[in-house]
Amino acid sequence: MPLWRFEIISRYIRTFDHTLLDLGNEEDLPKAFQAAEPWSDLIQKVSAQLCMPGNNVTVDECMVPFTGRSKDTTLVKNKPTPVGFKAWVIAQNGLFIRWLWHVKASPYTAIIVELPKKPAAKPQQGKKGKGRPKATVALSNTAGVVIHLVNMLPKQTYHVFMDNLFSSPNLFHALREAGHGATGTARPNCGITKELKLAKGKDKAGASGFKYNEVKSIPTIDGLIAQIAWKDNSLVLFLSTVYSGADNQRTPKRRKEPADKEAQSKLIKETFSDAVIKVIPIPTVSAFYNDEMNHVNRGDQIRSYTSYEHRFRRGPWQALLWSFLLDVALANSFILQLKTSQPRWPPYKTLESWKRCISDALFIKFAQESGERKRSRAEKEEDIFAIMKFLSFLAMTLGFMAVAASEDKYVFERLDKNDALLLVVDLQVGLYNLARDFDPTLYRDQILAHAALGKVFDLPVILTTSADNGPNGPLPKEILEMYPDAPLVHRQGEVDAWDNQKFRDAVKAANKSQIIMAGITTDVCTTFLALSLREEGYSVWANVEASGTTSRLVRDISNDRMAKAGVHTVSLFSIACDLMRDWRNTPGAKEMIPWLDKYFPVWGYVARAHEAAVNNGTIQPGEESLN
């Protein structure tokens, strides 16, 4: 193929029917976005089907470079990509789940927020009605985007992280009313309390009144939002409905000594002394914000490794399709196949190798359909048309196939006793009464049987409790006596055990990829931790017989939610048999039968009957060693 013929492909290829674009209605999206919308909707739909998002998500802006003429481009100074199209993205771990195009005449409906009630001020003379507070207020278009993006996700509770472009008390009230948490940095003019606003203004001169690493928290009038100021290199403002900013909410982090500032150098020197790096307990709100706010940036970084180097100066829709949508489809599918615990192939470790795999598969499939090309000069136009038709079809299917290729179809995954870790999560004596989906006596034996699996198969065990000094109570005495030396993590507030740093460190230190777990309650302690572990890349087996909750309905819904996220929801006996594999193994019948006798007498009778059959000589040849 001549070079010029190959070069014109990108100019003439289209992934949409231009005759269907509606340019007469001002309420519709601009032409460039209409051209990209079908492909955009498809990729978002498939990504949402393949990914069950966790609780922590990030909302941020994303720039698509385009230097040509267009009324819809945006200029954002001091950015790596200052000119181009802007998209609002909600993401997790670099995976773009949903996005909205930034349109100057915003097509998104306004969000009305009910303000917190406060005492009405007395009207001043000559200013009738000025003292009456507003009952509602409309969010800005930028803040409203956050609500629209969260509403596009599956219905569940989210913790939304955002930067100071979005954060405001009104937005956080709206998210809280919708059942979501929110944390973000804040600007002084966002509506934050006047005291912190003034302190921020005086900070450059060193007159804020804050010492290094000092925190001050002021709740809003209704007490629903914490307004937090933290003195780092400069004074940082936060808003949060999840973190209070209290002194006991601190997380140790390695910190470098900030750059020396004349107005603040003395306070910084007092903290660091002669150390360049020091472990300092910083506010938890800042620690989690730093960890979670970069989900969109991670996606941008992954795409930048093998980005399309051609700069688009004509055809704005091409910039959206090739520089954004195609890259997002490839990056999303790469992340999904990398994160899943049971792909149908060894995971590809780099985006470049993943792209090569997709490209090779496409050409292998479609090259078989092409006929022999005619070489006469008269057939040039027909030849070009055939090539364009083929590549147009390839481009349309590439986004879908790249995402759908990572679909996590069920693969039978076997438990390996050499790669398994046993977790006992909140199986506390004070929580027994919450387990109404099992007979109490039977359920207690199932809890102890779950814990005893570690003894039978010599598994590493980690124990954790929630507020065990209160009414929740401790773990059963039998479990504590089984594992006097096992790690026992006492959580004082974290609902999801994975949010506790000591617990995370203990799990990672075990260096196992398969997790067997059970907890009270199924819908909270078991489900939250199981989903967090899946998000971290572990294979999880949730013991449905040792996890209890308030009703069978809640149990079934919770088990279904875990199963959809790739968690193995299995019975206790199936876990034991999967670990054992063969009754003749070690551990095998000799270790299993006493365990069955104690906790599952029905199965114990079956095993004992088999032993009796061996002794009576009625067993088939070759099975004598099963006892």
From TrEMBL:
In which domain of life is the source organism classified?
A: Eukaryota
Q: Which residues cross the membrane?
A: none
Q: Which residues form the PiggyBac transposable element-derived protein domain?
A: 1-334
Q: Where is the Isochorismatase-like domain?
A: 421-570
Q: Which Pfam families match?
A: DDE_Tnp_1_7 (PF13843), Isochorismatase (PF00857)
Q: Return the similarity comment.
A: Belongs to the isochorismatase family.
User: What's the protein called, per UniProt?
Assistant: Isochorismatase-like domain-containing protein
Q: Which organism is it from?
A: Fusarium oxysporum f. sp. conglutinans race 2 54008
